[in-house]
Give the backbone structure.
Amino acid sequence: MPIDAEKAVAAEPRTAEISWGHKDVQLYHLGIGAGVPATDPGELRYTLESRLHVLPSFATVAGAGAGAGAGAGTVVGGALSSRGVDIDLAAVLHGGQSVRVHRPIPVKGSAVQTSKVAAVYDKGKAAVLVLRTEAADGEGPLWTNDAQIFVRGEGGFGGERGPSERIAYPAVAPGHEVERPIRPDQALLYRLSGDWNPLHADPDFAAKAGFDRPILHGLCTYGMTLKAVTDTVLGGDVTRIRSYRTRFVGVVFPGETLRIRMWTGKDHVRVEARAVERDGAPVLGDTFVEHS
């Protein structure tokens, strides 16, 4: 069997040294749509080095994308391989993502990142790998990322089904609703932060995967949505964010518009995102931002 759950979870973590600077942060922010309008003071917090702060979702691209969980395995010949795991990437779907920041991410920094398979769950027709990356610098922990990876056809091995992370949405209209346009070239810009999957750039590759054109990175939508929540509910203050999680429930195409709906609580925001041009097709579900 390509996944041996016991061996995968017991495997020694992989470690790597990563570093980043203001250019990496600015490129990431531009890749998720920051800078419009270019001279808006609120946008300059994402784009101008003298005023820069760091959106917590940057943790998913720190170290050229290793922050999203890729560091837990090695990609060789179209397969994801590590101890206890040897799977064809064609069977893999990015099912969900979470990030917890332990303190604000500095504009310039370096860290030691530790990656491992934290859990393997049996969903019947699929297995779910939880790929965890933790980063720390000389002052202590910085962030913890969990990527939930669905592997089709690898379930049914008798393992635990795992926790449900579904959230209940209030039966009232959202307190906030915003729309965010996606530039036609946004996937090309976002991939410069480290995700070079041709699915997001090459029409021929996208056609082989069943799409009539390249799709936007799920983690780009993830970052766009967190920025919208930060700017709309948190007064643009990224330091208030404690954690952020989502489930990827649909694709987005460059050139579309995201409709982001927010229900606010005392210390959290429940969120969903939909594609306007496809009759509100769901894109992100079970999305939750915890804040101070």
About this structure: The helical segments are 5-10, 22-31, 41-47, 186-190, 203-208, 218-233. The CA atoms of residues 32 and 220 lie 6 Å apart. Residues 74-79 have pLDDT under 50 and may be disordered.
